[in-house]
Amino acid sequence: MEHYEMNLTLKVWKQKDAKSRGSFETYQVKNISSEMSFLEMFDVLNEQLIQEGKEPIAFDHDCREGICGMCSMYINGRPHGPWHGTTTCQLHMRAFKDGDTIVVEPWRAKAFPVVKDLVVDRIAFDRIIQAGGYISVNTGVTIDANTHMIGKEIADKSFAAAACIGCGACVAACKNSSALLFLSAKVSHLALLPQGQPERNKRALAMVAQMDKEGFGSCTNTGACEAVCPKEIEITNIARLNRDYAGAALASDAHKE
Amino acid sequence: MLDSKIPAGKLEEKWNDYKGHCKLVNPANKRKLEVIVVGTGLAGASAAASLGEMGYRVKAFCFQDSPRRAHSIAAQGGINAAKNYQNDGDSVFRLFYDTIKGGDYRAREANVHRLAEVSANIIDQCVAQGVPFAREYGGFLNNRSFGGTQVKRTFYAAGQTGQQLLIGAYQALERQVALGNVEMYNRHEMLDVVLIDGKARGIIARNLVTGKLERYFGHAVLLCSGGYGNVFYLSTNAMGSNVTAAWKAHKKGAYFANPCFTQIHPTCIPVSGDHQSKLTLMSESLRNDGRIWVPKNINETRKPNDIPEEDRDYFLERRYPAFGNLVPRDVASRAAKERCDAGYGVGTTKQAVYLDFKYNLINKYGRTEANKQGIQNPDEETLVRLGKEVVKEEYGNLFDMYEKITGENPYEVPMRIYPAVHYTMGGLWVDYELMTSVKGLYCLGEANFSDHGANRLGASALMQGLADGYFVIPYTIGNYLADEIAVKPVPTTDPAFVAAEAEVNERINQLMNIKGTQSVESFHKRLGKIMWEKCGMARNEKGLQEAIIEIQELKKEFWKNVRIPGGIYEMNPELDKANRVADFLELGELMCKDALLRRESCGGHFREESQTAEGEALRDDNEFMYVSAWQYKGESNWELEKESLNYEVIKPTQRNYK
After folding, report:
1. Which end of chain B is more exposed for a tag (fewer CB within 10 A), N or C?
2. CA separation for the pair B82, B12 (Å, rounded)
3. Is B226 inside a domain boundary?
């Protein structure tokens, strides 16, 4: 693969902690190889800052192979940057050219407060799962795994929804900071499977209620979430959730009577 | 003297006997007992969830922002289980046998047999949780093959099996959090274990957001903190994966076993330059369908697709006809290294071999699909198109990842791959109950040493993590805690907690006060280079002796000249890293000492002085049929205790995959 080197200007959000006000700082980096990943470019910048006696930029990252969901940079106005279906850590520098200016911000949403620089607090996602994003089964099941027959198409669909990495790009992209794509992916993952049926109604209601409580906004179906999702979670999951939610709400009303 | 506490009786009856006779804790007493779980990967999350369900009061810790991010999430290819759904002759005994043989006869029979026994339960449990494993059209579970076996026993979810299993365990864990049975501490890192009267009674953890040290009490402490592959700097581990929790326990008395047993995985994307921060695995499952080769000519300049069959050397198929591309990882890695060292490597660095899917894309998948769709005499173009669709379904995420990293399309051109550090078989020594040599301190999953001997077979790490957490610890911890029911929770103002915190505090202050000139990262890179060159895929006496001295010098330099910007009481990733690298520097030395002492080759540990005429690893069972368990005695000072391995059922032989 042919590669090239570039010099770049970076405008990066710096914020001391949750309470402080933040602002953009401008940095220059030189001789960045097109073979580097975006985060390796940040490594170079941080090394440079440490050498200069300055404070490096804090950012979340861990697996660097696009699966843990920890990395979360808003790059040039788009969560995870310009490549489709790609996390920040899998974005590579050949997406940029010599002389470019790159603007990097944290996820911005009321429910994701900034912790420091580009690091945000996404614990609200854990609490949405706590509200019902599981099947209530204790360890020690003795039903053979092949007892449930699940058609390949259904299993594949469930898997596609379960592939969500909980990074929060959907929230960051949404003008209302809605978490509905994240939530609907979990609801769909479980609602498509026979094991998920007993708690299907309760789950949808409880998770949506928790989402509202966390301060995420409403969904207006603009599809911005689907467009930036690094795992290409489909917006049809939201339609499925809406059906489940409406049905569950009706059922719970009927129950009250 | 170490006691492995292996139950008496016949191998296949030991675990059942144990379960039938171990002590139990009644439900009312469970609510009075507190358990600390460090790490929330497959082992930690499954243990925390299961113990919470049982009624224990659990506190779980992870350094990431959510327990769902633990590095188990990145496991790709699958999880083994002796279900024999494929009717190909699999059984508990075969899984046990393959694992022992794959580990080159350096694991305990009793532990491995138990692992094989519970393997089938894991699949049942995960399916009940809603893990969407791959299915056949008829609705039943599908399997694929992995290295070191001749049956298809690997369950999978595309190339994201670890993700799906971890999400299952994470959901179970969050359910317990919601019920109030588990308290979850995100962005916390354990920096010491607290001992009272020789028993583990708590931990000191650093809150990575505020920088403050916090004290937590537990009647027992479980370390599920993963492996130490990042001692090599470049590895397939996540950036944050570290040895710190295990190392602190080691320095407080827990023996460290077989530290030199590290796994170099044959199929990873090669290093592209000095900027490289980590290496990315391409799942072993790809060796099901990919054929590994190098050119036969030493100065080959043609592009891979232009090199005709007769000029290709499928070296694994040539050397190991019985297992072919599916030999175990250590064997495949060494064979690739051998070809590259001999000058046949490919790519710009010549440190790579090809992994080529074309043959199976056409002949296996393409043809099957054509038959299914009733296409008569399909041309090659049609076969490629049909084959691609199937391959995309099986490994799509891996192919995409390869393309993003290298800029090359692996559906069109063969992947370039090279071995990279992936897994560590060594770890804290544990007995049959998974207890370390410190009472009340347990170690589960990759962090312990127990089940994989000198080489782990593919798709067995997920199996072991979940076996330990779901099916072993819920029994064995009761056997200990039953005698602890009268112990009241110790207030964290106890002098033992105060002293432990003071010690951690002093070390952090010491690090911050160095104010040197070189970054933590630069030291980590230098350590990694020493480890890779002298304690990597091939090791020899001279290199190891040099490495020990080099590491000692590097450690001194680190403590004199490291520069950590920022302050203590704030989020400070550089300080987090410094804490971890300081421990890697000590571990690296022990690994080299262990490798030096083990003058045989076995599994992933290849001593150049000990090989067969064909260049295969040559074990020395007379001298080295033991687990080396190291006791910490002070700086650069360890004492070795040997736990001899007694094979009662399997007769160790020279591993043969030919």
Report:
1. N
2. 14
3. no
* Structure token pair of residue A102: 């790159």
What residues 161-190 of chain B have any CB closer than 8 A to a CB of chain A? 162-164, 167, 170-172, 174-175, 177-178, 184, 186
Q: Is residue A165, in this structure, part of any structural domain at all?
A: yes
Tell me the residue type at A163.
A
Specify the DSSP element, H or E, that contains B177. Answer: helix B161-179
| A74 lies in some domain | yes
Other Cβ atoms closer than 10 A to A46:
22
Radius of gyration of chain A (CA): 21
B577-636 residues touching A, CB cutoff 8 A: none
Query: What is the rounded distance in angstroms from the CA atom of residue B447 to the CA atom of residue A239?
Result: 43
A-chain residue closest to B45, CA distance = A139
- A117-172 confidence digits (pLDDT tens): 999 999 999 999 999 999 999 999 889 999 989 999 999 999 999 999 999 999 99
Would the CB atoms of A63 and B238 count as touching at under 8 Å? yes
B574: which chain A residues are within 8 Å (Cβ-Cβ)?
A: 50, 56
* Token pair 């369900």 in the structure block, residue: B53
CATH number, domain with residue A227: 1.10.1060.10
**Chain A CB within 8 Å of residue B567 CB:** no
A118 occurs within a structural domain:
no
| A173 plus A51 within the same structural domain | no
Q: Do residue A98 and residue A142 come from a single domain?
A: no
Residue A250 structural domain: 123-256
Q: Which two tokens stand for residue B242?
A: 């570290």
Q: Is A181 helix (H, G, I), strand (E, B) or coil?
A: helix
- pLDDT reported for residue B1: 83
Q: Which of A168, A173, A246, A245 is nearest to A214 (CA)?
A: A168
Quote the minimal CA–CA distance from A235 to chain B in Å.
20
Nearest CB among A90, A115, A152 relative to B135 is that of A152
Asked if A209 reaches chain B (Cβ–Cβ under 8 Å), the answer is no
Contact, B625 vs B644, CB < 8 A? yes
| ipTM score assigned to the predicted complex | 0.97
Domain total of chain B: 2
Q: How far is A33 from chain B (nearest CA, A)?
A: 9
Strands (E), B269-402: 291-295, 312-313, 353-356
**Nearest CB to A139: which of B69, B170, B474?**
B474
Number of domains in chain A: 2
Q: Please indicate, yes or no, if residue A99 is contained in any of the structural domains.
A: yes
Best to test chain A binding among B155, B277, B398, B415 (most A CBs inside 10 Å): B277
Closest Cβ–Cβ partner in B400, B470, B565 for A55 = B565
Q: Report yes or no on B651 lying in a domain.
A: no
User: Does A131 lie in the same domain as A99?
Assistant: no
Q: Does B566 touch chain A (CB under 8 A)?
A: yes
In chain B, which among 86-145 make CB contacts under 8 A with chain A? 121, 123-130, 132-141
The Cα B481–Cα B14 span in angstroms is 21
Which of B421, B441, B470 represents a domain boundary (last residue)?
B421
Of A92, A126, A152, the CB nearest to B136: A152
pLDDT digits (tens, 9 = 90+) for B398-452: 999 999 999 999 999 999 999 999 999 999 999 999 999 999 999 999 999 999 9
Q: Which CATH number goes with the domain that contains B341? A: 3.90.700.10
What CATH number has the domain bearing residue B632?
1.20.58.100
Same domain, residue pair A30 and A98: yes
Region B572-593: what's the mean pLDDT?
98
